[in-house]
Amino acid sequence: MKRLILMGGRPWEAADKGERQVEVLLRYFPAKVKLAFCIFAQPEGDWEETRALNVSMIECFKGECTIAYQTMTLQNFAEVSEWADVIYMPGGKPPKLKAALEACGDVAKLWDGKVIVGASAGMDILCEHFSYLQEKTILEGFGWIKANCIPHWRNVGEDAAVQTQAEAELLRRFPETPLLCVAEGDFIEVSVA
Question: Which of 54, 60, 70, 129 has the highest count of CB atoms within 10 angstroms of its CB?
Answer without folding.
Answer: 54
